[in-house]
Amino acid sequence: MNRKVVRITDLSKPSDEPLVRIAQEDLMPVPHLEEEPELNPNIEKYKENYDVTLDGYLAIGVPKEVEEKALVERFLNGLRKLFSKNDNWTFLQPLALYTDYCAKCRTCVDACPIYISSGRKNIYEPPFRAEILRRLYRKYLTSSGKTFGSFVTGEVELNANLIRRLAELSYRCTICRRCAQICPMGVDNGLITHELRKLFSQELGIHPKELHDKGTVQQLKVGSSTGMNPDAFKGLVSFMEEDIKDRIGLDVKMPLDEKGVDYLVIHNAGEFLSWPENPEAFAVIFERAGVSWTLSSEQVGYDAVNYGVWYNDLQLTKLINRTFEIANKLDVKEIIIGECGHATKAYYVVAERIVPSDKKIPVKSCLQIFDEIINSGKLDLDPSRNDFPITLHDPCNMVRLSGIVEPQRRILRKCTKDFREMNPNKEMNYCCGGGSGFAIMPSYNFNEWKMKVSGRMKVKQILSAFSDVLDRDVVKYVCAPCSNCKGQIRDLIRYYDLWKKYKITYGGLAELIVNAMPDIPGFLEFEFH
Amino acid sequence: MLIGLLVAKYFSYLAVVIFAIVSIIKVSRYASMPLHLRWELYPVPHEEGGLPKELKEMFTEMLTMKRIFENRRGLWYFAYAYHGGIYLILLWAVLLLIGGVSDLLAPGALPGGYQYLIAVVGGLGMISITVGTLALLIQRLTDEEYKVYNAPVDYLNLLFAFIVALTGLLSWILVDPMLISPREYIASLISFGASNLPAVVVSNPLVILHLALLELFIAYVPFTRMLHFFGKYFMYHKIMWDTQPGLTGDIDYEISWEQEKGKKWRDLYE
Ligand code: SF4
Ligand code: SF4
């Protein structure tokens, strides 16, 4: 195995070749996956215009030609702002502590699915990018660093090579924060990734276009990161109402802009386009349970997505402010976030200290609401309707980061027959590999890295959860109550051909609940798309 | 003799004072930072079992270093030798303090066996730290994957701790196996000289060297990341397990990020 150790100083050195190469023989073996697509990062295609010298892959695609002096200057400005309270009150305290107190014990490295899957490439170790930031911070912003130099900071040279590679490296971590879960100090290297991304985005305007231009900017301007405007959304709502009728023969309404109701339900707008059966299932469940709820057709109000939580606190804040304004105007009692992990974390956890006190409205996850509804006995459910093997993917954002762990399990036990846990699960789960935006970032050759490296652990877990039934000609369902995880799992199934090989498919949770309603004709259609 | 007196008398107080002042400055720097956004990690113990569960978690981690034990066993042996040794030395300091107070106020009140306890706890602590720091130092100097992260000062810190422990260990073995002088030394310190300093402390070069190094080390610790025991409090209680609801942060701060220069956080909409 190629265990070349990359030093921090290597990142500042000029090179035409990547510092690290992903090779098939190094990758973590995955049982039951006899064949897999060959690696082909196609570096030649990109190398002329972009800096591919980190690991041969591009998530952002930082141009090769940059004016070095200006870049370094702007980076340093950003670094200062990252450590200032006006500009970074949102995370200054954790950042300062994590920068000061990592013991460099490497206890956290084996917790990282990316590091392990890659065949232990040390640039992917959780503390690696943190150490770069730490050295730069000490060198330029602390008196001990200025006085004693590299004796206290460790060697680091700030130049364009380092900046470009560090920008890419800040998109080789899904901010799943599994590493933080086992750090004896309580240091969270996922947060360091997050802070680096902020520096690049908020000061230098360097970010993946899917997150920024096509993501939050488009969402604020048009209404949704999918590009869907309010009219298109209203059209889709009518379509979904008809679709429910076609599927199960019932007239179910999806209320729009109703004031004074209990719940404003906000889905990840990707659901409406890719998996309309999920919001449809919500409507059926709410109608059956007699819940008073509404959707909003105002810009931003119909898309819970908040990519800001992954890369930019300013964009995060804008979307939070807009969302709470809408909820206040509608005068709802609670905001309910659909099956979307990062939106759950953004609104259920992170938003709280951004929303002015006179605008606060309680937020809950749909999983908590479904759990309450089912617990209250309002729904008649027959688990034998879902008699196929089902495993549950725990979205990091819902479980480890928002503490919503048991509701989905209670629900599954009430409406399915063959539920099996993945291992490890709950707060020690592995990310799907599409976290922190990766699921919606297919540009350049990044898809291959997502499939081969960041998603590899999830494929292994899925196959091992079904290992006893892989040979059986039954549908196997990966339940992923999160739009982004669903997107990533769909792509993994496709990439590794798991539907054809093993009849493994995927979907959300609400669909399983409706499929378990005995008086409704089957709601789920088992095709892979 | 003069050096011995200086080291044993005045520098002892100085070291403790520097330690306290710098630690307070450092801690208040973190404590005065603005309220951050919620960024907790579940399971959050106080949600499951209130403060007792949280304290239990925290102390189990501190006393056993469970997370390293479970995830990096090879390192745990060394790291625990070092930290377990420190805990023993802290316990030893408490024993000395009790001994010193009792010798001042009620001489002879403590049973004779008490001195054996002092000797065993102190001796074990010194052995443990010496072995632990040396092993960590060797590992950090030789393991390529660890070397990536080390600055020269990281080696220095370990080396420093090692030498302090080693000189202590040698003093114990060669000068005062029953560790009587530390007890007398503490009594003299806490009585501000009302009881006499033990002779070895002011005259034996090895003991003076050890004491001088120890004092330097105590004064030096708060300047380094070895102060992590305070940092850990914040990282666990004020971040990882902070779920306090209903608060709003400093949304009236003015922004200077290129992207939104001059705006206030509360006015971010478009
Ligand atoms: S982040 Fe924590 S576990 Fe990882 S090296 Fe630093 S102190 Fe050790
Ligand atoms: S947050 Fe997750 S992906 Fe990032 S370094 Fe930690 S374990 Fe790895």
Describe this structure in words.
The complex is a heterodimer of chains A (about 525) and B (about 270). Chain A is mostly helical and about 525 residues long. Chain A has three domains: about 10-205, no CATH class; about 230-370, no CATH class; about 380-515. Chain A has 25 helices and eight strands. Chain A has helices at about 45, 70-80, 85-90, 90-100, 115, 125-140, 145-150, 150-155, 160-170, 180, 190-205, 210-220, 230-250, 270-275, 275-290, 310, 315-330, 340-350, 365-375, 405-415, 445-455, 455-465, 485-495, 500, 510-515; strands spanning about 265, 295, 335, 365, 390, 420, 475-480, 505. Chain A has a four-stranded parallel β-sheet. In chain A, strands 6-5-7-8 form a four-stranded parallel β-sheet, sandwiched between helices. In chain A, helix 20 (about 405-415) links the parallel strand 5 (about 390) and strand 6 (about 420). The longest helix of chain A is centred in the middle third of the chain and has 19 residues, at about 230-250. Chain A is globular and about 75 Å long. By secondary structure, chain B is mostly helical. Chain B has a single domain (about 1-265), classed as Up-down Bundle (Fumarate Reductase Cytochrome B subunit), CATH 1.20.950. Chain B contains eleven helices and no strands. Chain B is elongated, with a radius of gyration of 23 Å. Classes of the chains: A mainly alpha (about 525), B mainly alpha (about 270). At the A-B interface, helix 2, helix 3, helix 4, helix 6 and helix 8 of A face helix 3, helix 6, helix 7 and helix 11 of B. The complex binds iron/sulfur cluster (2 copies). One iron/sulfur cluster binds next to helix 10 and helix 11 of chain A.
